[in-house]
Amino acid sequence: MKKIFIVLATMALVLSSCADFLDVKPTNQAPASLSITSEADAKVMLNGLYDAMTNSSFYGRNFNLYGDAKSGDLTVQSNGRGYDYMFAYNHSVSGYSMSGFWTTGYNIIMLCNNIIENIDGLKEEGMTGLDEYRAQALTIRAMVHYDLCRLYGKCYNDNKGSYGVPIADKTVPAGAQLLRNTVEEVYSVVIRDLDDAAASLSKKKSNGFVNYYANRALKARAMMDMENYSNALSLAEEIINSGVYKLYSNDEWVASWSSQFGSESIFELGMNVNEGDLGNTGCLGAQYILGGGNGRNNQIFMASKAYLDLLGEDPEDIRWGIMGQDQVGESEDYYRPGSCYKYYGNQDMKGDGKASSSAVNIKLIRLSEIYLIAAEAAARTSNASKASEYYGEIHKRSPNLPPANGVTAAMVLEEKNKELFGEGLRFWDLIRTNATIKMDDTTPDVKVTTRESSFDRSFYKCILPIYNGELNANPGMRAQQNPGY
């Protein structure tokens, strides 16, 4: 991974030269003890880490969008607009490779390693009080390794012995050429880091930062991939029973999108007006609404017919409150409520209380997801009463649908689809369960030649290629390229 770590080393040098931001030396040029000398330094470095996470090439936009656009939940009104190559599965080693996931992901991991190793050095010298900062960095390192592995490797329950991504759990020289580890090895490091971090994290609500419950939620996601349903249920119930978070009532649900750090928000990434704000054409919200914030003909994505039919099971489902009108074609017959306003606050587009309506925080983990993890895990372990209990708490967002009996995993996944639309999770559930992915190619001007309209996770483009820039810098990885590319 020569190119990756040249980028990382350069980034560290840039940070270290900016006295107003971080007056430290990078760990690959000086002893760790000279990089962080106080708790204040650790806070500054941690803030820089969270800021890096808002990069549009990862959690600031593209990661969420990827999980929706490739799932069948979204469609496009014509070819060649913005990020519709995700919808078309138009990936190759040289073009549309989404290589920003790789470079940005490893940049974030580098920042985590820098913090962890600096703090480890200070602990050896007797300094105390930094364990929580280290634990936050460990948790984020685990999160990014996990998400990179899902992007570039097969699902754990598909082929855990296949290639995942390189494990970068320590700083390495700029010229290092790490090769890919197996999916199983990556998951092992992810679980190790999460467990190592857990005891040092706060059990209080921690707005904008990962805490103990965010850590446990991430582990629950991984447990679902690994089909360790009893462990996933236990983790989800620990979060639910903690009392730290509370589900929105039906009256609160729509308004929750126009405020920051609500009662369901377990990990919410702060988008700052002067830093992560991409404006009304580039922000995550603009990708989901009529006109991308500027006019009807600029719209890129909209809800698929399948999703609208699913939500339409109850015309009074409260989740219609963040859906608005889109247009496919010129005729009035093509209007439909396919625009999602979650990332603009709601349909009034006033944002979530900041000066810019497009700098809306991204809710990466919500309590609703945890209830649905608990419900699915309970259903898969034949715990009918718990499956019904946890499912029912989310199902009542559809007030006209009768309470469900005999809750199955399939029912939970449908409810999860309704609840978490636009939050980037649907694709991963389809991959994890090896469900058929059905893409909506029915809009008038859509012509897709890079995939079929229906397929499952055996389709090679369900995972991304290692892009040419990385292969050229690290030739040993050529033999580890994903099949089909």
Short description:
By secondary structure, the chain is mainly alpha-helical. The chain contains 18 helices and eight strands.
Mean pLDDT: 89
**Secondary-structure-derived class:** mainly alpha
- Largest sheet composition: 2 strands, antiparallel
The number of distinct β-strands equals 8
Features:
single chain; mainly alpha; disordered N terminus; 485 residues; 42% helix
Task: Write up what this structure looks like.
This protein has 485 residues and is mainly alpha-helical. It contains 18 helices and 8 strands. The strands form 4 sheets. A two-stranded antiparallel sheet has the order 1-3. Strands 2-6 form a two-stranded antiparallel sheet. It has a two-stranded antiparallel sheet with strand order 4-5. α6 (131-152) packs antiparallel against α8, α8 runs antiparallel to α9 and α14 (367-380) runs antiparallel to α15 (384-395). The longest helix has 26 residues, at 99-124. Residues 1-34 and 292-297 have low confidence and may be disordered.
